[in-house]
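RESIDUES AND SHAPES:
===
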Amino acid sequence: MSMPNARAWIAAATLAANTACYSYSVVRPTDVPAGAPVRAELVRDAAARLAERRGRMDGTLSARFVAATADTLVLDVLYPRDLSAATAQPLYDRLELATSEVRRLEVQRLNRGRTAAVAGLGAAAAAVLVAALFGEHEHAGGTNGTKPGNKLVVPVFP
């Protein structure tokens, strides 16, 4: 396996690990702890109003939950990357939304099943990668520190 090919596998595994481990579940605003990552689906009028302020929007906001009252939600929404790229710290825009403007509020939670699956697939991919790299080295006429005819065995699971 060539090095660029190995890098592609590593990049794909990293991407899968970063996206597959979380899921969203619908919650009431009173059940969300401050600072929790949330996704808010907005009604059409609210999305149009915020599009004027924030630029292009698809009707959903990914944000950090700040607080909720009976008729208001307060969210910290990350500024678009091009506006916050000049600072070392991410910039947040604090939005106060009427509860009537939010169609659905979802909280991000760790999904243990997906996490276990990604970890298992990652371990299997690493084993295949190691086996391919050692196999390529052996076929290229090099030595892997074993006697001729012996194979190097790499245990994947203890």
Q: What stands out?
A: The chain has a mean pLDDT of 77. Strands lie at 22-26, 37-42, 60-68, 72-78, 92-98, 102-110.
